[in-house]
Amino acid sequence: MDIISPAHLAEHNQSRISALEDDYDHLGRQLARRGIDIAAATTRATRFRVALPSWGTSTGGTRFGRFPGPGEPRTIFDKIDDCAVVQQLVRVTPDISLHIPWDRIDRPADLRACVAARGLQVTTMNSNTFEDQPGQPHSYKFGSLSHTDPAVRQQAVAHNIECIGIGRELGARAHSVWIADGGNFPGQQHFRRALDRYLDSLRAIYAAAPADWRLYIEHKLFEPAFYSTVLNDWGTSYYCAREVGERVFSLVDLGHHAPTTNIEMVVARLIQLGKLGGFHFNDSKYGDDDLDAGSIAPFQLFLVFNELVAAEVEGVAGFELDCMLDQSHNVTDPIESLVSSTIEVHRADTQAFLVDRAALAGYQDRNDPMMALGVLKQAFTTDVAPILAMARHRLGGAIDPLGAWRASGHRQHLSEERR
Ligand code: PSV
Ligand code: MN
């Protein structure tokens, strides 16, 4: 079921298709000189997927305040509608990641039908044991899955199992766990015991998950705990994933690292160790800033995708990924941020596909750093916008998604409808 009028999109594309064909043909000739078939790159681009976070459809906020925009979603059904708009424009975001209890789901069957009617699917569930909910018996102030009190741990485990139960009704196939557990002061927490308690809780969640589900664990360096976190880095995440089970994987949130961390190398290590499960894409300048993917460090995003594409073309066995956006839109229209971030992630993947792998391997073997970097830079500096636009167009989306969205006047309509 379409939300933006297909006639509007068709008209919008009609006035842009001839310029796009021009640019596409030109790029095709350039790439052909490099031995790259643009048709193959475009077909691959039509198969790209990145999941939308239900929570990304609303304005986020900081601890200093929140400034909601007009026409914000009121219910989970509104959020699905907004995801459907993004999908209509970009056509590579049919998957949705839900967050419980931010998403209040009273009628899972109705929600599943609504999601399907919009041509979407719920793929991943996310739990929330980082806030207390009204009427909750035990507080998460001092932790959840790793809390010193077994009653708190049980409550947090039960919440995760409940999320999985809701997800089963919605047709999801993965559950993602991020804990805010940690300490604000030296001495507050016994590091090893806290990790052991976390592992026990994770085992209980894993045991309750359907056999074909994947469980993702998300490490984070700091925040809201400012001195230490229980699942602080990729190494600890890898260890926990390996300890708990075959279908437990590490999820890399780009914002959850120190500013100078070599994230692409973290990605390569997790691939090599068989435990990379997926991503939360976003960008940051200082910490977990939750800025739009590709807005600050596009080269880093490209280098992450370079590792993913390398693993793909080298045929790394059992390599399967859940890519999702996870951002906080504080000053932009959330739909615009989701659209633009999708394009950036799509761009990085497409550029990474253009890397001349044979040439790169040769320069690596001959220890020629300048030329090796040159191979990466050649791919990174290629303007792949015509490939992305052509892929969207072929899939029925917009050649210029933001332009089509602005011209649709849909935000104005939502601001009246959701007043
Ligand atoms: C925490 O910073 C996080 O990255 C986790 O994925 C949460 O589920 C999400 O943000 C929303 O707060
Ligand atoms: Mn995240």
What does this protein structure show overall?
This protein has 16 helices and ten strands. Helices cover 48% and strands 10% of the residues. The mean pLDDT is 98. The longest helix has 21 residues. It has 419 residues and is of the alpha/beta class. α10 links the parallel β9 and β10. The site of alpha-D-psicofuranose has 9 residues, from loops.
Give the tags.
eight-stranded parallel β-sheet; two-stranded antiparallel sheet; 16 helices; binds alpha-D-psicofuranose; binds manganese (II) ion
Beta-strand percentage?
5-15%
* Terminal Cα span: 23 Å
DSSP summary: helix tally: 16
| Rg calc | 22 Å
* Distinct bound molecules: alpha-D-psicofuranose, manganese (II) ion
Which class of secondary structure composition applies to the elements?
Answer: alpha/beta
Kindly state the mean pLDDT as a whole number?
A: 98
Q: How would a textbook summarize the main sheet?
A: 8 strands, parallel
The neighbouring-strand order within the major sheet is 1-2-3-4-6-8-9-10
Write down the secondary-structure element order.
Answer: HHHEHEHEHEEHEEHEHEHEHHHHHH
Helix content: 40-55%
The poorly predicted ranges are none
Overall body shape: globular
Total number of β-strand segments?
A: 10
